[in-house]
Specification:
Length: about 375
């Protein structure tokens, strides 16, 4: 058994501390004590007990004990510490910069052009994976099959993934793989119901969070990493498997809330030079007819432009069940949008489909909720 290290404390004959000393003397004393055991953190109290000098001897020269240690070279100087922080900051975003490159350039990978003059677009936003309303899901699947749109736009937050969100959650309830699998099934069904449609997926704030966690390999994502060996952005989101374009221009290195929102507003898709779809309502000021999501409530704005004439901008409802632990979800609305465009004149028409309540109507067909599709799910 190793013997306990004894400290010999050189005190004066009458066991009192020296109350004065030059800068060089007190610095030499501090360095001598630090060198006795390089593994020990020298605290103010430890120095007080094991030094010949009283606090007043060094305090009048250096003010704080931390500055005293800086001058002795025991801890980093302010400049050195700032340099370390800057190195760490840039090193931490290297992975994010690499992921920016990986998720970019996926906007036109899978185009399925059509030469028809009149074309249709089916737009869904805020589906939120396993929290999706089953009635919403049934209606939008059937609409995709009946309409056979030329374009399907998934306008952000197709994932929910509260594991990576800002609201507290019990880590024992984490199930990211189940949620990712759900989104893959959702994409597979849309592709099966509308096999000739071009599907475009815009990155919302929930996808942004997911990719940030992916880049940093946070504990919440470790279960996914263990099950998806060598996974990439296309594999994680099912882009290649289901032939989906991905609009993701937001820079993952943005850190504060304002910077992230600014980056996410760069994510939008324009179709036929006549329609624009993005996740955030601010994008309605870009001068196009179109739609946003994000707020889980339907809203409508009318506008005019010399190019498009009078036109509409819709904020569409969500697919998320009208309940949530973190917000009054009963105030939300469920719904999606059908857009029709004359590609020759650039004129557009919109059909908003409300599936909030017990029934919905799409193209003259009535849908009614079943007992298996309640408006809320209180056991969740």
């Amino acid at each position: 058994m190793a013997q306990k290290k004894e400290w010999s404390v050189p005190l004066s004959q009458d066991d009192t501390k020296l109350t004065s000393g030059s800068r060089e003397e007190v610095i030499a004393e501090l360095r001598m004590i630090a060198e006795r055991d390089p593994t020990r953190v020298i605290t103010r109290n430890f120095f007080r007990v094991n030094s010949r000098y009283a606090e007043s001897a060094w305090n009048k020269h250096y003010g704080t004990f931390h500055e005293f240690k800086r001058q002795a070279g025991i801890v980093l100087s302010r400049h050195q510490h700032r340099m370390e922080r800057d190195i760490a900051k840039h090193a931490s975003v290297d992975v994010l910069r690499n992921l920016n490159l990986e998720k970019a350039g996926r906007e036109g990978t899978y185009r399925r052009p059509s030469n028809r003059r009149w074309q249709s677009v089916l737009v869904a936003s805020d589906v939120h994976d396993i929290t999706c309303d089953p009635f919403y899901l049934r209606v939008i699947y059937d609409t995709a099959e009946r309409l056979q749109p030329e374009q399907i736009v998934l306008n952000g937050d197709i994932f929910d993934l509260p594991e990576f969100g800002k609201y507290p959650q019990d880590p024992r309830e984490y199930q990211p793989l189940k949620r990712i699998t759900w989104v893959h099934d959702f994409l597979a069904t849309l592709r099966k119901r509308a096999p000739d449609a071009t599907i475009t997926y815009t990155e919302g704030n929930h996808e942004f969070r997911l990719l940030r966690h992916m880049a940093e390999a946070t504990p919440a994502l470790m279960t996914v990493l263990s099950d998806l060996h060598g996974f990439t952005v296309p594999k994680l989101l099912g882009l290649d498997k289901f032939e989906v374009n991905f609009v993701a221009r937001a820079d993952l290195t943005a850190w504060n809330e304002a910077g992230i929102k600014t980056e996410l507003r760069k994510n939008y898709v324009t179709l036929y030079d006549a329609l624009l779809f993005g996740h955030f309502p601010e994008q309605r000021h870009m001068g196009y007819p179109g739609a946003n999501g994000h707020h889980h409530r339907h809203a409508l704005w009318s506008a005019y432009s010399p190019v498009f004439g009078p036109y509409e901008w819709h904020q569409i409802g969500c697919g998320h069940r009208r309940e949530a632990r973190y917000t009054p979800g009963e105030q939300w609305g469920n719904g999606f949008l059908i857009c029709h465009v004359d590609t020759a004149t650039k004129r557009t028409q919109f059909e908003y489909v409300d599936v909030t309540h017990e029934h919905a109507v799409v193209g003259g067909k009535f849908y009614c909720r079943t007992e298996a599709e309640p408006v809320s799910d209180t056991h969740r």
